[in-house]
Amino acid sequence: MANKFVTGFVLVCIVLVAATTCVQQAQADDGRFKSCFENCEKECLDGGQGSTFCEMKCDADCGAKEAAAKLNINI
User: Fold this and answer.
1) b/e 22-44 (16+ beta carbons within 10 angstroms → b)
2) N-to-C CA span, the chain
3) Largest CB tally within 10 Å, which of 20, 44, 60, 74?
4) Residue 1: strand, helix, or coil
5) Model pTM greater than 0.70?
6) How confident is the prediction along the chain (75 residues), in pLDDT tens digits per residue?
7) What is d(CA 58, CA 50) in angstroms, rounded to the nearest whole number?
């Protein structure tokens, strides 16, 4: 009975550590791609395009860059 409790406790600790690490990495990545989106959107709006067009364009462009960075692909 005690072995099952200890095993369960260790398993929960491992899951918590893994989840915390993933969240911290995701938060660090968000800042880099948020700045990509903001810069892209500002340049697009300054170019005379509409806000909906710019949002969709920049979301696609920066989303592709984010996915490529996570997969270590150069585009």
Assistant:
1) eeeeeeeeeeeeeebbeebbeeb
2) 54
3) 44
4) coil
5) no
6) 667 877 877 777 777 666 566 555 555 556 778 899 999 999 999 999 999 999 999 999 998 988 888 888 776
7) 12
Residue type, 28: A
Indicate the residue type of 40.
C
Distance (Å, whole) CA 56 – CA 41: 9
Q: How many residues does the chain have?
A: 75
Cα 13 → chain centroid: 24
Burial of 72 (0-12, 13-18, 19+ CB in 10 A): exposed
* Greatest Cα-to-Cα distance within the chain, rounded to the nearest angstrom: 69
By C-alpha distance, which of 69, 72, 39, 75 is closest to 57? 39
Residue among 38, 42, 18, 55 nearest 26 (CA): 18
